[in-house]
Fold each of these.
Amino acid sequence: MRRVFTAENVFEAYIVRDRLIEQGIEAVVQGEMLTGAIGELPPDSRPSVWIRENELYDRAREVIETFENEVPSGPDWRCRNCGEDNEASFGLCWNCSRPPDRG
Ligand SMILES: [Zn+2]
């Protein structure tokens, strides 16, 4: 078993797992029960995706990178510096090159 991905939430973890299985890579989600668990587990634990066959790690990472590149990281955002609207995939404002302040 080898961890290939740490997800923001359990939904993302399952999407990644399904992608891997589609590609013939046997994968499982670990840590899915952490949300709402009290006590023994560290509060910052997030669900992760593991593959059963360590040799498939490189291929699994390729699948995950493809997934990450095609999914926007969030909703469209408006630049607080110049007020222009930017697509979620833009790391910097297209107009003034400032990073988004999503805080
Ligand atoms: Zn701007």
Note: The pocket of zinc ion is lined by residues 79, 81-82, 84, 93, 95-96, 98 (CB under 6 Å).
Amino acid sequence: MSTRIAIHHRPDSFSDRWAARCAELGVEHERVNCYDCDIMSRLASADALLWHFAHTIPEDTLVAASIVKAAETMGLVVFPNTASSWHFDDKVAQKYLLDAVGAPRIGTYVFLQRDKALEWIESAEFPKVFKLARGAGSANVRLVRTRDEAIALVKRAFGAGFKPIPGYLSDATTRYRQFRKRGGRILTKLRRLPGELRKAIVVNRLIGRERGYAYFQDFLPGNVFDTRVTVIGDRAFAFTRNVRSGDFRASGSGGLCYDLARIKPDAVRIAFEVARKIGAQSMAFDFLVAPDGRYLIGEVCYAYNAKAVYDCEGHWDSAMNWHPGHMWPEDAILEDLLESLKSRRG
Ligand SMILES: Nc1ncnc2c1ncn2[C@@H]1O[C@H](COP(=O)(O)OP(=O)(O)O)[C@@H](O)[C@H]1O
Ligand SMILES: [Mg+2]
């Protein structure tokens, strides 16, 4: 019996390579559109669904979790499965998740009531880090130096709220540096600017404001880079990301470093163990080091920049053996998916 894999296509996402790899392997696959009203009946004849959904696409934020769950209910193998993705782009959910599996995480304080948050601020020590539940590339992460700043943020969190997609001109220096590194042409970029601005406005309107909660973390000082460990099945890929100059934030800085001397086995071991407890097919972990030297998880995510993972010179397995060679994460995901389809058939 042949295997049929349904792939939701989004240009410049994991789906490009999934489709190409299926073709290389001779695996029957079909493009589906998860936004279609009849998507579930289309999936009825498939064995698996692959969908790299994104946090910046309003359609995805609205229906991806439901479609994944519904497809699982229908008996499909899905990537990402619910275990890997119910907490995607939701740092509040991740706090509960990491607590549930007893993972070593950065001290995190979530308040759903304004008064409780204000009461906590009275005795909290500063600086702290304030985050929105949504967001990537450090866009919604800021340092809170004083009690007054924290009070103002809490009032806003339970009042007007925050836009989840920051203005296109925010973090402009980093964007400009990355753009130059890629050999970008300034005129082309400027021409695209109105479109990008329009897109941010539309997405913010559709997704709605972030409010009704306040999220703080202990500030871990002195981390000049964070450690990104990406687990896919029995493989762990790792690299580090330098913080922006004059800033404490690494994510989105573009300063990737593949020096293996920077990767401590502890981070890899913790990532494997936590991914296993979560039941995640794929999980990227952001690690920071606490003042006492412990590796602590800041956030987790089922999806990531594929090229950054591919550029790792090899990966570890869960017995900590090193396997040299580059690998596209999409290939690893597909390999595991085909394997689970095979073992399901017996
Ligand atoms: N509690 C913290 N203490 C110190 N630095 C932090 C802390 N949390 C995050 N950072 C830094 O900020 C960056 C962005 O934070 P993160 O929570 O990973 O948000 P994002 O979802 O935008 O990647 C991290 O890569 C890390 O360098
Ligand atoms: Mg991060």
Note: Residues 186-207 form the longest helix (22 residues).
